[in-house]
């Protein structure tokens, strides 16, 4: 099972965890969790006026090979108005490229932080892959 938590952080709220949202999905082929502004397809939804987040920004997908992957989906703009940083348990951090996909560690945890390039705001998505 993949468990996600999402916190929205804006300016003076830095460090606050109020308003945390949660979602999960079983580790079965074709299981998917999406993060973005579109309530019709995303399980974790950001405010509609946070335009640095695409309608469908991040997609977590469980593959036939038994691994969860996260993809920063390309939006309608050629250049993103945000950046995404992936931090794995243990502090290893790396940028996730626009349109890029990363395999998440089996049984691992970490965080994806979507940073607005124009204002001090972020969407922090924590993940934990529970292995049963």
In short:
Helices cover 0% and strands 47% of the residues.
Label the structural class. Answer: mainly beta
> How many extended strands?
11
Unreliable runs: none
Q: Provide mean pLDDT, rounded.
A: 91
Radius of gyration: 14 Å
Helix content: under 10%
Structure description:
InterPro entries: FHA_dom, SMAD_FHA_dom_sf. This is FHA domain-containing protein. The chain is mainly beta. It has a single domain (2-129), classed as Tumour Suppressor Smad4 (Sandwich). The chain contains no helices and eleven strands. It has strands spanning 2-10, 21-25, 32-36, 44-45, 58-62, 68-72, 82-88, 93-96, 101-103, 109-116, 121-129. The strands form two sheets. It has a six-stranded antiparallel beta sheet with strand order 2-1-11-10-7-8, with no helix packed on it. Strands 4-3-5-6-9 form a five-stranded mixed beta sheet, with no helix packed on it. The protein is globular and about 40 Å long. The mean pLDDT is 91.
Descriptive tags:
mainly beta; six-stranded antiparallel beta sheet; SMAD_FHA_dom_sf; 47% strand; phosphoprotein; 132 residues; 0% helix; FHA_dom; FHA domain-containing protein
Give the secondary structure arrangement, pairings included.
Layout: E1 2-10, E2 21-25, E3 32-36, E4 44-45, E5 58-62, E6 68-72, E7 82-88, E8 93-96, E9 101-103, E10 109-116, E11 121-129
Parallel strand pairs: 3-4
Antiparallel strand pairs: 1-2, 1-11, 3-5, 5-6, 6-9, 7-8, 7-10, 10-11
